[in-house]
Amino acid sequence: MELSPQSKQQIDTILRFEKWTGWGFGILAVSAIVGMLVYASYWEMPDLFFLVFLVAIFAMLISIETTRFLMWLRFVKNEKARKLLTLRYTVYLIGFSAIGYYGVVVFYETTQPQTFQAFLLSQAFFWGAAFLGRWLDRIIQKHDGHYLTGEDLKLIREARDIEKEQGHG
Question: CA 128 to CA 36: how far, in whole Å?
Fold first, then answer.
């Protein structure tokens, strides 16, 4: 099946965004962790550094998800699919907020030992949001063919890698 130039451009934009956010987030997170470890090995690190690190990671995740939402909102044209897309990313932001709440408030702010129940509750919110997001992915795709799920993107990426190997081999 031959894709339209608009669909090819959409897929290229999405794959480029996924690649750059994945690499960018990974490099920044690893650099920050290594930097904190190096700093802590020579000087005493104030607790504020850890809080700034948690807030920065949380802000970066929120900004990546917001940008991803705005990108998909530009591609999806069906009104019902747009509303479902908004619901999907709202649920994702609630899941990330649960992780952020645990990281900043429960883990950093409390002087008492962290409870395993608080950890499980934050994980339940996050994984529940991820499950609901995947379920909504399939429903959004039924309403608008321009929306691609994570599995679709993985298959497209693999097909392009195979095409590159055959072209060079």
Answer: 32
| The pLDDT of residue 3 | 67
Query: Distance (Å, rounded) from C-alpha 84 to C-alpha 65?
Result: 15
- For residue 114, the SS3 value is coil
Q: Which residues contact 36 (CB under 8 A, 6 or more apart)?
A: 45, 49, 50, 53
pTM over 0.70: yes
3-state secondary structure at position 117: helix
Q: 3-class DSSP state for residue 135?
A: helix
Q: What residues of the chain score a pLDDT lower than 50?
A: none
Q: Is the dihedral of CA 91, 98, 149, 75 positive or negative?
A: positive
